[in-house]
Each structure stands twice: as structure tokens, then as C-alpha cells.
Batch of 2 targets.
Target 1
Amino acid sequence: MITDTTQHPADSIENLIQSMSLREKIGQTVQLGLNSRFCNEETLERHLEEFPVGSVFCGGEIITSAEGKSAALREKLARAQRASKYPLLVAGDLESGAGQAVADKTRFPMLLSLAACRDEKMAYEYGKYTALEGREAGFNWTFAPVVDVQKNWLNPIVTNRGLGDDPQRVAALAGAIIEGMQDHGFAACAKHFPGDGVDFRDQHLITSVNSLTEEEWWEVHGGVFQSVIDRGVRTIMPGHIALPWCDSFRSSSGRPRPATLSEPILTQLLRERMGFEGVLVTDALIMAGFVGFASRSERLLQAFAAGNDVMLWPENDYYSLMERAIEEGRVSTERLEASVRRILTLKQQLGLLDAADAAEQFAPIEEDSEVRRQAVDLSARVADESITLVRNRENLLPLNSDRARSVLLHSAIPEQADSRYIDLLAETLEARGLEVTRHKNGNCLDVNKMEQEGKHWDAYLVVYSLQIHQMKNAVRPVGELGEVQWAQQYAETMKPITISLNTAYLTFDNPYLDTLVNAYSPCPTVIDALVRALFGELPFDGQSPVDLETIPERTGFLG
Amino acid sequence: MITDTTQHPADSIENLIQSMSLREKIGQTVQLGLNSRFCNEETLERHLEEFPVGSVFCGGEIITSAEGKSAALREKLARAQRASKYPLLVAGDLESGAGQAVADKTRFPMLLSLAACRDEKMAYEYGKYTALEGREAGFNWTFAPVVDVQKNWLNPIVTNRGLGDDPQRVAALAGAIIEGMQDHGFAACAKHFPGDGVDFRDQHLITSVNSLTEEEWWEVHGGVFQSVIDRGVRTIMPGHIALPWCDSFRSSSGRPRPATLSEPILTQLLRERMGFEGVLVTDALIMAGFVGFASRSERLLQAFAAGNDVMLWPENDYYSLMERAIEEGRVSTERLEASVRRILTLKQQLGLLDAADAAEQFAPIEEDSEVRRQAVDLSARVADESITLVRNRENLLPLNSDRARSVLLHSAIPEQADSRYIDLLAETLEARGLEVTRHKNGNCLDVNKMEQEGKHWDAYLVVYSLQIHQMKNAVRPVGELGEVQWAQQYAETMKPITISLNTAYLTFDNPYLDTLVNAYSPCPTVIDALVRALFGELPFDGQSPVDLETIPERTGFLG
């Protein structure tokens, strides 16, 4: 890494651009997925020599190879920085704290939990500690927060990754998170422009559509994005989402052009009309929402031409494609340099072009630091204030610690899904001295059979943990989970206390739940808060971040 | 079985009623699920002595114990008839031919295939051969046809079990099926009153709601039911479906009262206003759509009081409950006898009260009978005329037999689901000399990787087989199937030919499919017809029985 401040002073971005070869400039617009192939330092060095990049992405794979320890990850990233001629932006999906990416950092409850607290100060801290812990692990950029607005309860992207359905609340909380991040040396990224949450479909699986009218859009997503732009968000991620009022172009298959490929959406609307001057980074280019247009090489050039600065994980032929496009005049040098300038400006803002700061970023950190203590405390506070008592019609809650000594814990969770938070819930209950009987999914008649056999528990907890935001289209209790919904109603003597560990919308599938707690997040601090709330040791302070009043009985009705 | 015509002549139903004990009258209103517990003749005899019944239901379990052979099943049913003092109605879910219930009878394509043929004569035969083959196996009553109207594409009940979304077409085809059945010694059953297909939810899992206004309802479900009543349908099955315009009562949990419990819906609307004089048989009483009201015993009495004649699988205490209710005057003898009268009238219509007919029903049948030949021929004709070419924008179809020699068969089917029809498709292609490579679900990048490795096939078939109408809420490509939708779009060189073996609505999740064949039914004759149609040996004669023109992009949108 070049850190000589006389050669690259923070105020001489133009000199830096002029010193770059064409390939180096193109490389600035590339974000490399730092997967296991690059765990070997030599391989990475060789790769960067031929294919220089401006940024790297750390996803699950390399973090796994780092065994979840941020010290090891930081070491790898330091090597990557050394292997790169220019300092690298290091990005990750740190949507709910650095602990989402690195095991020894703090996991925060999902954004929907934060939204249930309705506390902007807490949102600022959420951003702050994500940044401070993220930087300790070597990150300087997070693709967060999700600022989408859940206008459609079937939308599979926003779910508990987002801040709910109210545009004003989303804007206020997202703005605070962004400031918390950016005040502490991080680049935030508002996603997914022009706003997810309208379509029932998933951008991973298809080009989705934000079908709001121009007027509606400005009131919802437009308003949110304008607000975070005005509050200085440094980067925005366009999604593979169409916005027909702004760009009505359709391919021969009738596919509407997604934002990632749309000059009207990215340049005319977002840059020129809304005044966004920061970095635009595409959502992943392998997603099905992107791949329906033209040939792969044509798509790549179109995406760049549309206004993106950083391409998320293009294949290696992107370099030669861009070189040829510049040569042939299909992409101008000015356009390329404009993107490089925005990327270098971001690096400058983050102190990456300044030797002293770059060094500081990799300074040793203490194991049990004050930052860590504060982050853990914040995670607990968000959890404590988020647990929402949606219904308590039978006054079953809170449970009485003296009388409720045995629990039937009926989990509704897809067979192949990670059940660690259900396990943690069981352990937490057992640690209180409760006798816990566990039952997973099963047959619709199971609980009724148990009752007929004379079995009884003091409390019957039914805990739903859906597989959401995993390209599963599964924001409702589908498959085995449907039988749990059946079974809990078929209980004769036991009254179910229903708990959701993610979706806020269980009442749309079962409007007749008498007792429902929305906990929003599979997260250790949430499990802890949930149990205390169930036993009356913590007030149910959360307020639903989505409207649950009107059951949308005609969902899917064709009129 | 008592078959002495002097004692029970067909014209002396009143004498028969008067000769019955109270318990025998109550028994007439009970339908017993003939599960494996009753495969032992002695057990059944002892049971019927204490708990006499009017009808039995043969579902999957006892048919399995009969090893799928109708001769063995008939033998068991003959024993049941002998064990019963009064002749039994024998019911089953023969929705798509007797082959749906008994392996050596003929399986017809699902009703949605029949609807794609738009041929009332064929619908009549569909009913006729279901009856003739069903009677050979010992049945005299089928809970079919489904006459619901698919007004909601997310509705999980109607799907390919129903006749589509057009009320006039549903009425015309359903009426023909019913006449075909009833002209040939069978009782048909129109289900599910007051009409499923409006809600996105499943009556198995929750009380669902037909939220049409009174005017809308008469145009849709009301019109269909009135039409089949006027054409003489002998039985109707109320579903656990509310109809707020007709009955606005709600339980303390806010649960709307389903038809199965509603006197306004069953007696005032269906009997008095619509003039239905036949037998009302409840949908299964264990379904969650039913179990939310009052205590189990209260519910049972309420369901009877509402107007039902036959209770589907009540537990044994139903007898003592009813005896006490009669004693206490909560149910009148007149009301009970009215139901018994309707049930005996049905038996009389079916010739069950007449010794000669009852004997004929169990007459030996030939292995390769004319009936069987006609049924097989009908199944093939329905299949041949139903295959629907929804899109052929790239003119990929029909395939050229000389040039298309290798096929990548990519199946989209839940891991645990029955894949026998995908296997059959592969075998049928191989039997034509094609080289078939199979790929199941997998990763979104799989096909793209194969292409990058230089692999190529002359045709790329993507075959969706969803798990629908199985209480799974899964009428869309959820779970692993989402990745297939992704993978097929990410193919670079191969153009997918998409085939659906059940749902007609794949274009709602993926509106940009260029090539789509809707085959509607996992059924041997459909697989055969599908392959011939793909290779141009059969015209694509099917017409979509549901409207696919307007993609409902705002499904789930909360406004």
C-alpha cells in the first residue's frame, strides 16, 4: 500500500487520478469478493497485480476462514491492503452490528427491533458501535442501513432487516444510524434505491418493481432517500428494482429496466434531481433481478453507463470490456474518472489516503475494551425496549414465576433451518429452573393428543422462526410451519402464547391469536429480554413498527 | 346388512326412521373414517354395534392397507356393509377419477386440466367414469367436484383441484361432471360452500373468509352453487369458511363463524333461499378452520344445529352428546329425523335400500373391462386437449425431433416431495432416444457454471412441481424452488423451456418467462401428452382456465 503523503496527499485526488493507468482507474470501480480463493496471500497479490481493485467485500466465507476472530480477519485485510497499490475500501453487510460478520464482535437485534424502540439516540449508537467494532475488524464501509419501507407485507427483502412501514420513522432512524456510523470513521450505505418493499417478489429471483406513482414515491421512498442524502450518507446501493414512473423501458421479454441499469433512475433522478454526490455501488451482479438484460458484457457496460461507480463482484473480463469501451468511445474517460474521483473522495473522507489514519485503523485493540462493553450494553438496551406485546386478550402474560414451572416449547421452524436461538430460549428457561418439554413442528394433532393423554404444562409457548430474507419467498408460515399453526388452535386445554422471532405479520395468517409477542430478531440479547418480559421482570416497551390493525384479507385477490 | 325389501322398501323411508332407535338415528348422521384400526372385521363389527353409522369414508390409509387393489378394497367394504345394520354410504375424495383413491383404477388429469379443455361433454364423461370405476371399488359417493372459483391466485385450496376462475365456466363444467356422476349411480358433492378461492389462507390452518359482498357473491360462488343445485346435485360440503355478508357473528377472539357452524349460511341461505334439499356433509371436523369456536362438544352440537346432516369423523362422545341434547330439548327429534330422512333419501336414490341394486354394486368385474378402457381413453383425451402453451416468444416450441437429441431436465420440486412424475417425464424422454441429464433444484449458479464449463444441451427444460393443496401455503415457488427460478434466468447460452406440472400462476412470480407450458396435473397421461406436444406431435390445444394477462404486481401491498 502506498502511504507516502507527499505522493498522495489528501488534497490531491486529481494528481492521484492522473497518475493512474487506465487499468488502475477501471480497478477502482471494481469490488472484489474476498472469498476463500484469496485467503492465500500470494494468490491475492498475483490477482491484484493483473486486476487491481478499489475495494473488497468480506462476506461469510472469508470470515469463516478467519475463524470468526476479528484479529485474524484484520490480519488478512492488512495483507490485502499491503498487496494493493492504493488503499482499499473494505465493505461488508454489517446490518445488525459487526457481530453479524465477525463472531467476536457484538450482534445487535435486527433493525426492526430498533424500530420498535422508536429512539433516535439509540439508532445513532447503533450506527456508532457498528462502526467502531467494524473498524476494529478491518472494515471501513458497511452496506447498511436498509432504508426500504415495508409497504407490502409479503415483500421478502425488508422484513426484519428494515425499519418498518412508516416513511418518516424510517427516515429519522436511518438518518441517525448513518450519522452514528459516519461520525465514527465508517461509510454507511443506504439501500436499496429506489426503494424495496412494494413488490411481493425478491430481487434475487427476479427484477422487482416499485410500482408507486411519482407522487406516492416521493412520499415514501423518495422522501426517505432525500432525507438521508441531505444528512450526508456517503454511499447508496441501487437495487435490481424498476421504477416505472421514472423509467418505463422494458426489454423484449417485457422485463422493466432495474435501477442498476437505468440512467434515468441513477443519473437523472438520483444524482441530478436529488443531488446525491457520493458513491453508487451496485447490488450483486449475479442476482436474477439483474441478469435478464442483454448479454453479460453489455449489461456490465450499461450498468456503468447508468451511473454506478462501484460494481459488485464483476468477473475478470470486466477490465478488458471497459478498456475496449473506452478505446471505442462507448465510455468516456471523463465518465470513468468521475467515478474514480467519487471513490477516492470517499477514501479521503475515511482517512484512507492519509498514512497516519490508515495506520490507526489497524492499531491493536484490547480484548475487553470499553467499545465492546458499550456495544454489548447497547445490544441489551435495544432488546429490552423492543419486545412488543401485540395481544394479551386472555391476560396470560406476564407469567407468574411461582406458578409457571413447566413449559411446552413448541417451535415452528423449517427442518433444515438453524435452530440455535430456539435452543438458547430453551436453555434460558431451564436456567430459571423451569421444566421445558420441547416439540418441533410435528403433526397438527400432536398437542391435542398430548392433552388427551393427560399431559399438561403451566405454559404453552409456540415460537415461530421463519426462514426470511434468504431468497426463500418464505415470509409466511409455509411448509411444516402451517401444521404448527393448526396444532396450536387444536389444543383444547392449553392456551398458546405465540412468539415470533422474526416476522411481525403472524396475525395476517392467523388473525385470531389471543396472545402474541413480537420479538423481531433471532439474537442472544433478544432471547434474554424476551424471557424476562414473559415473566414480568421487564415491561413490554416495544411498539409495533408496522401497522397490524387491518388484516389484509384480500391479499392476492384479483377482483 | 338388512336387505329384505319387504322390511325396508324404497318407498317406506318413514317406516325405516320410525323403526330406528335414537342411537341408530344419531348414527346415520355420523361418517366414520375407515382407517387402519378398522381393517380387522371383528373390531369394526364391535364398533358399529356400539356406534352405528350411516356412512364410511375411505381415505389413503385403508386404501394402502388394501394394497391399492379395488377388489381387495371392495371385499373390505362388503364386510363393512355386512357389519352394518343399515346399508352404508361409502365416500371418498375421488376428485380426479377413481385412480386417485385406488391404484388399479384410472387417474384423470386434475380438474384444472379438464377446465383447459373447455368441453362439457368431456366433463360429463369425467363424472361418468369416476362413478363407474368408483362403484367397482365399492364407493357410492364422492366428495367431488370442487366447484370453488379461484378469485385469488394465492388461495391454496382451489389451485389445480378446481375449474379455474370463471364462474360461468366453473358452473357449466361442474354441472356436467355432477350429472355424469349421478346418472351413473353415484352421489356427487359440490364443495366447499359458500365457496373457497377468495382468501389467501387455508381452511385447514385457519377459518378463512369469503369476503365478497352479497352482490359479488351471487355473481360468483352463489351463482355456481345455485346452478349445480338446480341441476340436482345430491350433496354439498360446507367449508370452514365465513361469509360475512350473510353471517357477521364473530367469536371473542374475533373469529368469524364459518359456514360449518352457521345457521344463517346453511339453513337460511342454502336451504331456504337457494332451495337445496339434499345432504349437507361437513368438511373434516379436525380442521383448524373449525376448532376455534367454543368447546369441542358445543361445536359439534352447533354444527348439527346449523343445518348439517352428516358429520365428518366426530369422536365417539358425539353419540352421548346428541342423546343428552335430544333429552334436554336442545336438539329436537324433528331436526334429527329431518337429517336422517335426507340421508335415507340419498341412499334410496343410490339404490342402497333396494336389495337387488345393493347386490349389483358388488358384482364381480372383469380385469380389463370396457369401463376401464373407456376411462383410460378419457384420461388421455383430457390430457391431450389440455396442454397449454402460455408463451412461445422465442419460437423454441415445438422441438425438432431430429435436432433436439440431448436435454437438461432441471426439476424444481421440494426436496421431500414425491418426484415420480418428474421421473416419468425423464423416462418418457429417454424412451424416445433422447439423452437426458437431470438436475434437481441446486444452486442459483449451477446452470451458468455448466455453461462456462462448455456443457451444452439441445433443450433446457425447467419443470416446476410445487407442493400445493397439502396444507403447505405453498402455491408459489418457495424454498429451494426460488433458486431454480434464479438459475434459469442466469443461464447465458441456453434458453429455458419452463413447464409447470400444477400451478397455472408461474408468470406471476416470473412475468418475464419467454417460453411456458402449463400442464396443470402430475398425472401419467399428462406427462405423455406433454412430451408429444413438446415435439410437435400434438397441438397445444389447451386454453388457460385462469386469467394470466394482468400480473398482480401489488399483491400484498397495504396501500
Target 2
Amino acid sequence: MDVGADEFEQSLPLLQELVAGADFVGLDIEFTGLRSNLSRPQQISLFDLPSEWYLKTRQSVQQFTICQIGLSMFSSIEGESNKYVAHSCNFFLFPTTFGILDSEFSFQASSVQFLNQYGFDYNKFLKNGIPYMNEEQEKKIKHSILRGNWRVRSSLDKDQIKVVIDKVTQWLDLAEEGDQMTLPGIAGFQAFEVQLVLRQALPNIWTVLKEEWVIVKKVSQPQRWYLEHASCDQVSCWKEQILLSARGFSVFFQMLVKAQKPLVGHNMMMDLLHLHEKFFRPLPESYDQFKQNIHSLFPVLIDTKNVTKDIWKKV
Amino acid sequence: MDVGADEFEQSLPLLQELVAGADFVGLDIEFTGLRSNLSRPQQISLFDLPSEWYLKTRQSVQQFTICQIGLSMFSSIEGESNKYVAHSCNFFLFPTTFGILDSEFSFQASSVQFLNQYGFDYNKFLKNGIPYMNEEQEKKIKHSILRGNWRVRSSLDKDQIKVVIDKVTQWLDLAEEGDQMTLPGIAGFQAFEVQLVLRQALPNIWTVLKEEWVIVKKVSQPQRWYLEHASCDQVSCWKEQILLSARGFSVFFQMLVKAQKPLVGHNMMMDLLHLHEKFFRPLPESYDQFKQNIHSLFPVLIDTKNVTKDIWKKV
């Protein structure tokens, strides 16, 4: 099952159930690049100590990003030994862009070739990727959302918001109390952003979100006060909702951590570095600290590369 | 008309004709990012001198890439003054990946949002982008092609080539002289690369390219010698052909330069920096040198931003 931003929130309860019932979870991650083109002393060598490998790889992990995570939740079949049912999901991810956050990431041409070979759909990644953030970014966003004055970053956002305000202001001039208009094609964070800006700019309107439409209603000031303080639409609770949307895949990552299921992958060191950097915290400088963190997140890690090496040794 | 790698080579003659007949050429470029998130002293300021703006922008131009170039060839209608016919093409571009060349480029989340807003198709860019290179890269590639021993970069290429060699070797064991086999689904550079590797590895075969098929024929050594020295398949002429394919859009860029037509754009400084860096030479450190280069490439540049400013001043 492919899961993008459009499907993610509604699939969360099912995902939580699958993780809770799993015996172990299989993991495979696709990246926009593996190793940056570094000059000689920074290149990976077979003679690197693990800590040297870590420091060199850390740099590439900070530069490239995750475009897809494949997870398979394996649960045993009752009464049948060594038989499992697997539920697999492909999550397309895209770094959260919201307010002050405008991330940059690199693409490596050879990785693009690799992904092409397997029919990767870039539109799913770049147009409908699920947002995510690590704890540090979450702290920043939380701070700016709670202060209610995050800056609109890209010039497009500014233009779009200008167009929307102009449109609503023109309509408002002739509208009567109770009239409503709709703004089509606004979804996700943008819908939250547009609503917040409109509500801040115009004291005699109220906004409601309905699928990909923002509905604007002309209201009196007492009505507005009432709506703002109604239990289901208090700004504080609404802000929580925005943060939940912006955290996206990180919400699921935290579920996965909490479930403490064995995590199984093949040649998964790179995957673990990315999991740490993208959903937990920026990679520490110390390799020991990284190992400690990963083991506290996932106490049981099984890398099938090591398993096969071990079997080969015995053979 | 959308033009990707698949359509590019065959549309070159028509493009050359359109450019030759044009009175002026309109230009608009889309990028994967505009301005890198720089720390304070490196940020663009309204008070920057043009040379300061240039040095700061140069850094972003090196980091981001062109994903699409829109060109419109305007030619006047005979006998009607101030009336033009415009032929417009959208070229999807992707940096050449070939042998030693494995480029990295960045994406900026806000630019992705911008491109999404206009329905940009990332699959056309990342799966079917026309290759290109500047003079410096061309020199490197030429050198490695002429020496005939470029390294295969990505692990996928290595795997693919291993599979192909295994397949051909197995077939060769049982084949008789004159027999032939086909390798399907190999196009573009890869087809050249596969053929060169096969011809180098196996002395008693010959290869021919037919659309997306590489045809392998078992031949005797004298036949092989003859085919290698036949006028239409001399390795040197073949290598020229590879280089022509790898140069891709740069071939058309050079046509455009040679035609010396006025180039018209809106707010086109960024576009000019990218044209210089991607198709001509890496941007020089000196702003004056950049201006000199651009004017020798395109003697007549018309920026409609300056035109409108001028009209506003007069009004």
C-alpha cells in the first residue's frame, strides 16, 4: 500500500493497530543520495574504524533525505509455528515546510538512476510526501505556532495569501452577515495558514475547513467572539491540531519507538543514521552517543547482512 | 511542446530552423531552488552592490540546478508590422551522469511548493531530462571517452553490466558464427556504455544499436577487425556520437549562441547566471568577467523588468 500525505492521517489508527499486533517490523529506506562526492581524505575506506565511518557518513546523512520508507509489520499466525502475515506500507516522505522551516536537501544523479530503475514515482514524493520533523525542529515550530506569528517564507505563499485576502476583502464589502464564500483548492498546512492569516486580518469573518475548500462566513463581532471560544475551535486546541499535522510521520515514528518491537533490515546502518537524524535528533558527533541513542529507541535490531555473514562463517 | 531526452535529438533540426528564422527568443527557467539558507552576512540585502549580489548568488547557482527551460522563438509575419508567430518549447533537463560524472544538486522545499502550484511534472525532469554539461565537464568527459576507460560509477550500473556480460557469455558458449541475440530495454548512454564494455570484454562479438535494443552478433576475428574499421563504425566516429549524446542540451545552447538573436526574459539575472554555469563555464569570481562573458555569448539582452521600470518612470 502506497501512503502519501493525503492518506496518512486517516491511516494512522490502522497503522497503530498493526504495529501493536506485530512480532517484528521490517524496514527499508530509499534516499535521494548515499555518499556525497567528497575529496580524498573524507572518502569512505575499507580500513575505517566504525567511528571514522560514522563521522564521514554523518555528513552525507545531513545532506540527503529520505524519499520513501517501506515498513512491513509481521505478525505470527496463531497455532502455526514460523508462519507470519505481513502488512507492508510504502510511505512517501517530504520534509515539513512550514513558517520558518524551509529545508534544503540534495539529490545525487546516480541515486536518481537507481530509483528510476525501480520505477520510483517522484511526483508521489515531491507532491504528496508526508511531512516529518525531528525533536529540534518540532521545538522551533511549536514555539512559532504558539506565538502565532510565524513568518510566511516563500514568495509564492506571500503572493497567494495576498490574492486570497484581496478576494475575501472585495467580497466582504458587498456581503451581508450570514453570507458565505468558498476558497477552493487549499489543503493541508496551507489551509491552516490561510485561515489563521484571514482571521487575524479581518475581525468580522469566520473560517471553516471542508476537504479542499476554505469556507469564509461574514459574522458579527459577538458571534466571532463566541466561535473563537467555542470548545471545539479554541485557538489553542486548533494550534495543537496544526502541530499534529506538521509532525506527520514523526507521530508514527514515536508510536514505533513506544511499541519496542524488533526492527529487521538488511545492511541497515545508513537507515538507522537517517532515522535518528530525521525523526529523533540531529546526529551527535560521538559515535558512542549515537549507538546509545539508537539502542534506547530500538532495543532489538536485527541486520540480515550480519545474520547471513554469520551463516556463511559457519558453513 | 514538452521536450525530454527521448524527443530531444530528433527535434534538433527543427529547433535549429526555428532559431535561425527567429527575430528574438523569449526565455524562462525553472530551478530546484533559488537562495540557499545562508547565515546572516551571506544573505542578500537590498543594499548590496551588484558585485556583492553576484558573489552571494553565485553560491546558490552552484548548488541548485535547472529543471526546466522554456524557450519561445518569435518570428515576424511578412507584410504585417508588429505581428509575430511564437513557437514555444519546454525542455526538461537533468545533469549528465556518465562515467566519472556523478553530479549532486539541491532541492529547496519552498521551490518544490512553487513548482507544485504550477503542476510541474517531476517524473519528466528526473526520469527523462535532457543531459547537458559545461565546457569544463565536456573536456573531462571527452578525455575519458577518448581514453576509452571511464569508470562505471553507480553500483547499479556495475550490477547491470555484470548481468549483461553473464547473459551474453552464456549465449556465446552455444552460439555459432552469424547467430545473434538481443538485449532489450537499453537506451541512451547506457546503450553506448553496454556496447563498449561488451566489445572490450569479448573479442568475437559485434554489437549494433536498434531503437531500445542492443543486438549482439557472434563474428569471426577477421570480421570483427573489418567491422571495427568500417567507415561508418570506426571507434573514433562512434565516440564522437557518444559525446554528442552526452552534451545534449549544450549542443542546442551553442546553436543559440551562434545565432546571436536578442534574448528576452523577465527578471532574468538569475537565468543568465545559470546559463553561464550550466552550459558555458563555471561562474567566475569576478562580476566584471561574468558580464563580459555573458555579453559575448548574448550581445542583445532585453529584461522586461527593466523595460517596465523605465515605462513607470516616464509615466
